[in-house]
């Protein structure tokens, strides 16, 4: 960068440096980077509040304030004096337009309007950061035999399709053969090198996640939203590991149904809770569609924990048949009121399961701030199965 | 750029010279509006990179989108001066701006404060700043963007904390405390001291190390650069580069009312006298002039700030009308805004311009106060005291390298904003690399210490 550069260029007619380069934009990008780093450092808090309302969104919007480069400043005085101009008599009283509602900066205002940014983050990035930040172990995938085959590039050959000709390589061969510099290169067929493809078998990295939600009368809207937020991050986490991830949504009251995603979160039922119906439904779907030997099956179940007393034995057997085939089973107890710390019917059921050495985890989710805690709990539980803090 | 306008530049320059303006040649360059905006944000055509400029840039961009501000010109004093004009200015605007720039050029060549600071910084600040920018990109190459950014965070946070009464290339304090005050030409004492030593022979080496700093030091950028216990040399260079740029900015800041007023006075006058300008261009230019110097936004009755263009313009008109041009020129040469406003903003003028003083409460309620000329002067000048920053000085460096800073809350009237100050200490601590203590006062007025770390 050179102050005279512009002038010199103008004589040659080339574009001036300031038309090609914006320092303002460069420094703005740096600010952006800093703010993203700051967001990243506070990620768990931020995702708890982020709005994940639209289905299938690949980004999250986070409102942030611009960073301030600080200088020494006097503290705000309760009263300050200033000088103004216009038709005003001593004793006149009016309000500062810059402080009026809605903050639209009035023409005579004294303060700079606050600017808020709405940063958009890719969910994939966030999940990557989270995993780095929390140093979560990657899930253990159960690899099955290949379904899909994949072609990868592997080596060169003298024969091949024209479109796979590797010019650089061919030219190298020519140079090697001729040796003498300066000679006019004449390609012969021997010089030509073609890229070769090889068939590679891919291990199956396929996963199915069953989200099972209790939609009985006792589950409030807030409980359901809590469960939804949690499910959302679970999907993101699993998606990170599996190239193909299927989600299955099952809701139950005293009966169980399969739903598609948008409907699933709208459903509200009434009446009692019979968890065994849900487990049976999951079992049924696994048998019908998936081969446990080839897919990694996960089950996450969100409920407020109250299960019909008469269902206890049935639920235990039904759950056992399901967990026989799942890689991991998670139980989230959403209770917006006081947290009962898993001392519920269903809570005990999963505690038994865990005690029996099954890959299962439990978490009591009381508010949105705890969502990340739950995600962390399950994803580290997958490998170590620690007790709930 | 319209060629028409170029044809007028020389004639306006001649007219200005005939009217008694004395200025160094000015190089005019028409640049895209985006670049104008950057110059306004950075304050210099090429300046060091820092993210805080990016924030200002976005504010500026938003302002422009809302139609609040439009930049016609930016001028850099020097020999030659540089003036950048927006490419999309019309002919009339460019004529006006050319005259305006010449007013600035006259001011910056003759005003004492400008001359003194330019004497320090040299008349080629634009090139110097570009050099600093290059120096900093070299530092980024050598030490990484992050380390350089930490140094810049600290240096730019202290950019107002200089002492323009000191030399730009200031010497370090004397190592040793001088013996009893040796007055400048105290030959008697010198001879007496010489006498005393001769007979005794073994005069003990009773030299006392001077404390650092020997007196509270307000030139924080210089002080840190020179006395930080573990600063890298490239970090010192960054501090000194920022300080040099601050020396350049100070006169611009401290004479804004006079300078803009002077330039506005001259563009109006030159325009009136330039009979070679086409009628239509003249009318357009005058319209543009009245937009620039209007005191209050068109749609409101009162403004809670004073347009420096308007205030300065009105004051100069009054002075020249009353005392003539020569008197005005000598005021222009000698004063800065403090002297200018205190001496020449008279009661009549304040009444004529409908200036008033107000008290603003935190809830936004504003009460217009009694007329009081002296208080009005201070209300106008208050944002300009001490380069617009609280008075913070380095008081002492302890044996372990701890830096003691103290805030002069008695002069400033209240304590520092603690949250911000703590952040600044945080920046500074990363280059000072030893603890820092800052004393100020709290809400109730009792002493308070801020510590970093």
3D structure, described in words:
The complex is a heterodimer of chains A (389) and B (453). By secondary structure, chain A is of the alpha/beta class. Chain A folds into three domains: 67 residues; 53 residues, no CATH class; 179 residues, von Willebrand factor, type A domain (Rossmann fold). Chain A is built from twelve helices and twelve strands. In chain A, helix 10 packs across helix 11. The relative contact order of chain A is 0.10. Chain B is α+β, with helices and mostly antiparallel strands and 453 residues long. Among the domains of chain B are: 90 residues, no CATH class; 67 residues, no CATH class. Helices cover 55% and strands 12% of the residues of chain B. The radius of gyration of chain B is 25 Å and the shape is globular. At the A-B interface, helix 3, strand 2 and strand 3 of A face helix 2, helix 3, helix 6, helix 7 and strand 6 of B. Strand 3 of chain A pairs antiparallel with strand 8 of chain B, so a sheet runs across the interface.
SSE blueprint:
The complex is a heterodimer of chains A (389) and B (453).
Chain A: H1 5-12, H2 17-20, H3 23-41, H4 43-49, E1 59-65, E2 79-86, E3 93-95, E4 116-122, H5 123-134, E5 149-157, H6 167-178, E6 194-201, E7 206-214, H7 221-241, E8 244-252, E9 256-259, H8 261-264, H9 275-289, E10 296-303, H10 312-323, E11 328-334, H11 345-355, E12 360-365, H12 371-384
Parallel strand pairs in A: 7-8, 7-10, 10-11, 11-12
Antiparallel strand pairs in A: 1-4, 5-6, 8-9
Helix pairs in contact in A: 5-7, 7-12, 9-10, 10-11
Chain B: H1 3-18, E1 26-31, H2 33-42, H3 51-65, E2 73-76, E3 81-86, H4 91-110, H5 112-121, H6 125-143, H7 145-157, E4 176-177, H8 187-200, E5 208-209, H9 220-227, H10 233-254, H11 256-273, H12 279-292, E6 302-303, H13 308-334, H14 337-344, H15 347-352, E7 355-361, E8 365-368, H16 373-381, E9 392-397, E10 403-407, H17 409-412, H18 418-432, E11 436-441, E12 447-452
Parallel strand pairs in B: 1-3, 10-11
Antiparallel strand pairs in B: 2-3, 4-5, 7-8, 9-10, 11-12
Helix pairs in contact in B: 1-4, 2-3, 4-11, 4-12, 5-10, 6-7, 6-10, 7-10, 7-18, 9-10, 11-12, 11-13, 14-16
